[in-house]
Amino acid sequence: MALKYYNAAAADPDDIPNNSPIHLFHDYWLSIKPEGQLPGRQHIDPAAISRIVSWLFLVNVLRDETGELDFAYRLLGTSNVNLVGLDATGKRVSEAFEPVAARAIVSHYRETVGKAVPTFWSTDVPTEERRFIRCFRGVFPLAADGRTVDMLAGMLVPVGETVRL
Question: How far apart are CA 21 and CA 149, in angstroms?
Fold first, then answer.
């Protein structure tokens, strides 16, 4: 089953509530970021983000010989899987989403890789009950060498989902 993806648009991080898992992960990402470099997967300590780790997904950045980028899901947290109703671990974006949705997501991921800064989005996510849940998505670049983005960390979280501080 390929997932649909609706009306994604860039979001202002200031619109994301302070106690949203995305906002909390953004704060964490900034705290582990070496000065003048990007953090890598090796900097992420799941125990340090235990309250929000179930929302985390990791995406491998794949580069072909021409430098063209593609993306494959390495890990999806249980809250993310429950939200979308599918575990896409091991699948490329094009395998997990319908073509129009895959192109949009790949475009967003490429933007994050190209800018090497976190990006934020809002979108409606369809559910099995044929209703939509408004969500925020944060995508965070990771680089094992501190420079070349080789992985993305992300979260797709319903707008009203918060963590008790």
Answer: 22
